Amino acid sequence: MQGDGTPNLEHYTTYSEKKLLPIANIMLEYIIINPVQHKALFKKYSAERYYRCSIFVQAWGLERWPENGIMTLKKDLPEVENEIHRHREYVAAQEARALRRQEAIDREARA
Question: pLDDT tens digit string along 82-101?
Fold first, then answer.
């Protein structure tokens, strides 16, 4: 977790990346294995109350690793981090474009 917030995350959770990776790997494996290994847990977090996060994470995982395949999050983490970084840059650029458009509309309305 070399990205933003890692020192804060480690400070407030008291868990380092080294400690979290094996658990995160197991959790992802549970989700990309068909059928889902812990149906009750998957069902709970697929509810609207939890923003359907298990459904989102399952789709996200299956885009990156084959269903019922072997995955090694530690090996794949640099690429995942790069993907997150690229997505954040894309979102920031979209927001900047939208802001510039709104500013142009506002200037036009005042003129």
Answer: 998 999 999 999 999 999 99
- 90-93 contact pairs (CB < 8 A, 24+): none
Q: At what angle do helices 17-32 and 73-110 cross, to 10 degrees?
A: 90
Of 85, 58, 74, nearest to 25 by C-alpha is 74
The two structure tokens encoding residue 50: 């939890």
Classify residue 9 as exposed, middle or buried by CB count within 10 Å of its CB (0-12, 13-18, 19+).
Answer: middle
Residues constituting the chain: 111
Euclidean distance between CA atoms 79 and 11, whole angstroms:
25
Contact status, residue 21 vs residue 72, Cβ threshold 8 Å: no
List, for residues 5-47, the tens digit of each pLDDT value. 678 888 888 988 888 889 989 888 888 888 888 888 889 999 9
User: Which of 108, 102, 31, 12 minimizes the C-alpha distance to 73?
Assistant: 31
pTM: 0.65
